[in-house]
Amino acid sequence: MELPPQLALARMMSGYAVSQLIYVAAKLGIPDLLKDGPLTIDKLAAGTNAHQASLLRVLRGLAAVGLFKESSGKSFELTPLGQYLRTDVPESVAPMALFSQDSYAAWGDLLYAVETGEPAFTHVFGMHRYQYLEQHPDAAARFNAAMALLSAQLRRAVVATYDFSRFKTAVDVGGGQGGLLIEILRANPAVHGILFDTASVANGLAEQFEVVAGNFFDSVPSGGDLYLLAHVIHNWNDDDSTRILRNCRDAMTDDGTLLIIEMIMPDECGPSPANYPLAMTDLQMFVMTGGRERTEAEFRALLESAGFELKRIIRTQALESIIECTRSRS
Amino acid sequence: MTLRQMFTGYWVSQSIYAVAKLGVADLLRDGPQDVEQLARTLRVDQGALYRMMRALASHGLFAEDHDHRFRLTPLGGLLQTDVPGSMRAMAIWNGELPYRAWGSVMHTMETGQPALKHALGMRLFDYLSQHPESRRVFDEAMTGLSMQVSQAVVSAYDFSGVRRIVDVGGGEGTLVASILAAHDQMEGILFDLPPAVENARKQIERAGLASRCEVAGGDFFEQVPAGADCYILASVIHDWDDEHSLRILKQCRRSMDHGKRLLLVECVIPDSSEPLFSKLLDLQMLVVTGGRERTETQFRDLLNAAEFRVSRVIQTTAPECVIEGVAI
Question: Which of residues 261-280 of A touch B (CB under 8 A)?
Answer without folding.
Answer: 268-272, 275-280
